[in-house]
Amino acid sequence: NANVQWGGRFAGGPSDIMQAINASISFDKALWKQDIAGSLAHAAMLAHVGIISKDDEAAIRKGLTEIGAEIAAGDFAFSEALEDIHMNIEARLSERVGEAGKRLHTARSRNDQVATDFRLWVRDAIDGLDQQVASLMRALAQRAQEHAADPMPGFTHLQTAQPVTFGHHLMAYVEMLARDRGRLADTRRRLNECPLGSAALAGTSFPIDRAMTAELLHFDRPTANSLDAVSDRDFALEYLSALSILAMHLSRMAEEIVIWCSSPFSFIRLSDAFTTGSSIMPQKRNPDAAELVRAKTGRINGSLIGLLTVMKGLPLAYAKDMQEDKEPVFAATDAAALCLAACDGMVRDMTANTRQMRALAGSGYSTATDIADWLVRVLKVPFRTAHHVTGRLVARAEAQNIGLAELTLAEMQAEEPGITQDIYSVLSVDASIASRTSLGGTAASNVMAQATRWLDALAGT
Ligand code: ARG
């Protein structure tokens, strides 16, 4: 029993193995809405230019609408023998509306059909993720306003470097996520061309109106080259690249959350809703969500590399290899959506341990740079010399196991005779932070302004 859609020239049907390797219905049924939308637009266009009758178009529209309802209700019997979502829906349409249904595939191929469906799907996914990224940015900016003036140790090499505010640290992620939104928006702009009407690879002899289908499906324009249109998956690759970079950002945030809520740090406490317990150690509060956000980056990067590898070396135009484009995109989308939701929840719910962060912000000689800056500003000492003098002051304090502020003026003057009492005014964490008023610096007023600017910008989204 040969395939009902293409079996005309075949005496026998495919083996079970052939069917198993060939069929994509198990995953591409996710494209059903896009497939129906594409077919509705195609049928409207065919009727508009007179390739099919208005009656046929009406029958097709009715049939497709009913099929959509069947699928939505879970009443549709997906068939592996019909390979994919396109042939499942088309065969069902012919079952329901007869001859008219059999005219739908005029001037179309599954090659331009799947390229169109997939672009529509990725476009919808971008719109959904964009909202989620915006929501996470909002959560971070709100928490940043709350903690605009609360000190925490800033790190480089994960060694205490200089005091920053917790709000400033959170706002750093807002900037990263804003670039992620930009990448998704760029991807969307470039993908928004309609392949429908490219047919199998060469275009069609029918007098189709590609501008019409493009417009009906809210594309900016039809694609320009039929070979390119059916063989291009750049849009999926760009999308996966954007998701990989986004996932890398979320993974860095997740790693920091893991560090911050470890008991030696105790910078934050995650809510019960975003914490798990241990089956043996009753005291444990584990940040599993953050760890899994960190881990799911692997899946998303893997999807990008997987599809890049599928696409490399494929001759034009369509090849069945390209059927392997969907699962990585679906998997990466699910993972990214879940990671964004988890980060959103963790950030909104977490409690900052501001006393602990403030205490540690001043440890590790974190205001040493402020001494060096004072020597430069007040005594006009060259910075490199000031760095040296400060290094010796740190060594003196360290030898006595005390902070810089606890060195006596006489001890300070032993290293640099010009030092006066005034130097103590720059040694506190708050003074250090307050002095960082340069554009983009950590002074509380800067952080507040940046957070407010972002919340205003995000208000419309
Ligand atoms: N299921 C196929 C895919 O996802 C649809 C396109 C099939 N085209 C073909 N010429 N066999 O790629």
Automatic annotation (TrEMBL):
<dbReference type="GO" id="GO:0005829">
    <property type="term" value="C:cytosol"/>
</dbReference>
<dbReference type="Pfam" id="PF14698">
    <property type="entry name" value="ASL_C2"/>
</dbReference>
<dbReference type="Pfam" id="PF00206">
    <property type="entry name" value="Lyase_1"/>
</dbReference>
<dbReference type="InterPro" id="IPR009049">
    <property type="entry name" value="Argininosuccinate_lyase"/>
</dbReference>
<keyword id="KW-0963">Cytoplasm</keyword>
<dbReference type="InterPro" id="IPR008948">
    <property type="entry name" value="L-Aspartase-like"/>
</dbReference>
<keyword id="KW-0028">Amino-acid biosynthesis</keyword>
<dbReference type="InterPro" id="IPR024083">
    <property type="entry name" value="Fumarase/histidase_N"/>
</dbReference>
<dbReference type="InterPro" id="IPR029419">
    <property type="entry name" value="Arg_succ_lyase_C"/>
</dbReference>
<comment type="similarity">
    <text>Belongs to the lyase 1 family. Argininosuccinate lyase subfamily.</text>
</comment>
<dbReference type="GO" id="GO:0042450">
    <property type="term" value="P:L-arginine biosynthetic process via ornithine"/>
</dbReference>
<feature type="domain" description="Fumarate lyase N-terminal">
    <location>
        <begin position="8"/>
        <end position="302"/>
    </location>
</feature>
<comment type="pathway">
    <text>Amino-acid biosynthesis; L-arginine biosynthesis; L-arginine from L-ornithine and carbamoyl phosphate: step 3/3.</text>
</comment>
<dbReference type="InterPro" id="IPR020557">
    <property type="entry name" value="Fumarate_lyase_CS"/>
</dbReference>
<keyword id="KW-0055">Arginine biosynthesis</keyword>
<protein>
    <recommendedName>
        <fullName>Argininosuccinate lyase</fullName>
        <ecNumber>4.3.2.1</ecNumber>
    </recommendedName>
</protein>
<dbReference type="InterPro" id="IPR000362">
    <property type="entry name" value="Fumarate_lyase_fam"/>
</dbReference>
<keyword id="KW-0456">Lyase</keyword>
<feature type="domain" description="Argininosuccinate lyase C-terminal">
    <location>
        <begin position="365"/>
        <end position="434"/>
    </location>
</feature>
<dbReference type="InterPro" id="IPR022761">
    <property type="entry name" value="Fumarate_lyase_N"/>
</dbReference>
<dbReference type="GO" id="GO:0004056">
    <property type="term" value="F:argininosuccinate lyase activity"/>
</dbReference>
